[in-house]
Amino acid sequence: MSTAGKAASRHLSVSQVTSGYDRADVLKGVSIEVRPGAVTCILGANGAGKSTLIRTILGLNRVRSGTITFGDASLSGMPTHRIVALGIGVVPEGNRVLPRMTIEENLQVGGLLDPYPRRVADRMEAMFAVFPRLKERRAQLAGTLSGGERSMLSIARGLMTDPELVVFDEPSLGLSPLFVSEVFGIVRRLKETGLTILLVEQNVRQTLDVADHGYVLAQGRVVASGETRVLREDAELHKAYFGVHH
């Protein structure tokens, strides 16, 4: 699976970050490290602060204290489009697409930050090679696609920025079990290319199977972290934070 992505060489570092909405702090001193070429997962129940963490990394929420860096660049206070241009792509929650645009037009929107049309065209063909179902329907309106097809399009559009790191925000949300397995298969294949991935999910078992390192959020704090092979065996952690028995 070739995505023509950039060689992963930069750490994403979130250090003691506090962030939230209005006067309420949602994240309370959160620290995570996303290593180059690895899959790092953020797990937690609804309301744990996962989406706020992603929004803060992407510049959509202000960092109230702490630091966020990508390589040598500080992301604090940087607008979202510049963060994306640095090499951080995003696959948003809910498989969001532009419903009144075709598949091809959605992908073109994903490549708008690149000033070289030839490069955008080449990247689109690379996405069609990865997702042949999208190529077959390239002229179809995105709003008429199935849930699984919208998920593929959302992922492909996130990769159109040629990112070094991709943030997946709840990619399995609302999908049937068949398409959930397909999405995690795509994440595995992207991992094999050396792409750095930050995976935010509630699907505990499949996430721990594909990720290398994980963090568990609860009430805006990191309550556990480590290699996923260790987290996978922590039955009490599963019971306490996810309501499932290992």
From TrEMBL:
**Gene Ontology BP terms:** L-amino acid transport
* Ranges of residues in domain ABC transporter: 12-244
- What InterPro entries does UniProt report for this protein, alphabetically? AAA+_ATPase (IPR003593), ABC_transporter-like_ATP-bd (IPR003439), ABC_transporter-like_CS (IPR017871), BCAA_Transport_ATP-bd_LivF (IPR052156), P-loop_NTPase (IPR027417)
Protein name in the entry = Branched-chain amino acid transport system ATP-binding protein
Q: Which GO terms describe its molecular function?
A: ATP binding; ATP hydrolysis activity; branched-chain amino acid transmembrane transporter activity
Q: Which UniProt keywords apply?
A: Amino-acid transport, ATP-binding, Nucleotide-binding, Transport
Pfam families linked to this entry: ABC_tran
Indicate the family of this protein: Belongs to the ABC transporter superfamily.
Task: Note the SUPFAM superfamilies from the entry.
Answer: P-loop containing nucleoside triphosphate hydrolases
Instruction: Identify the species of origin.
Output: Methylorubrum rhodinum
